[in-house]
Amino acid sequence: MASRRAWAVLCGAILIPALAAAAWAQKGPGPGREPGGPPPGMEDERDFPPGPPEGEEKAMEFARESFPPEMVKDIERLRQENPDKFRRRLHDMAPILRDPEAREMMKRNMKAEFAVRRLAQGIKKAQGAEKDALKKDLEKALAEEFDAKLAGHELKLKKMQEEISNLKARIEKRKGLKDKIVQKRLGEMTGEVETWDW
User: Fold this and answer.
1) How far is CA 164 from the centre of its chain?
2) Closest Cα partner for 155 from 26, 47, 19, 13?
3) How many Å apart are CA 39 and CA 24, to the nearest integer?
4) Which residues of the chain have pLDDT under 70?
5) In the list 33, 73, 76, 125, which could disulfide-bond 29, CB 3.0-4.6 Å?
6) What is the pTM of this model?
7) Cα–Cα distance, 75 to 66 (Å, whole number)
8) H/E element holding 116?
9) Per-residue CA distances from 166 to 1, 19, 172 (Å)
């Protein structure tokens, strides 16, 4: 169970933009994206059963607390206009919402990405001294976005190292219990030991 949860958190950390980015990506292409297309890694069209409404409300509460208002509006629009896609993104985001470290990392990433996009849009419309000032702000925002993404990779590495450490401990424990495990399994297969279901 712990290993499944750690793996889910790791997968969630890889998909950090999750719900908000899916909604936001509909506004226009970013670098390397097709107009109106999903962000990289978000193309999955699996069918997920609808989650409980309280799960959706918790996710929206997190978004309202963590993301800029413009982004929250986009998420709410996705929820209204495309509930299935909203639920898929929510499903991808669920491990992050359960992990405080991953949650903080997601907040940091989303705020940094939002600042970069807002400044990049402003530069396109600006001229002269205003454009130069926005360019300096964008450079600072890009450095912050880089740091946030790097911290996300470090968190993924930490989770992987924890999982590897847990797996090594389980392997060592099973090595020590080899004879007992083999005898128990032998008894079950020959009917000499009764198996019990929980």
Assistant:
1) 20
2) 13
3) 9
4) 1-55, 195-198
5) 33
6) 0.54
7) 12
8) helix 100-125
9) 12, 30, 10
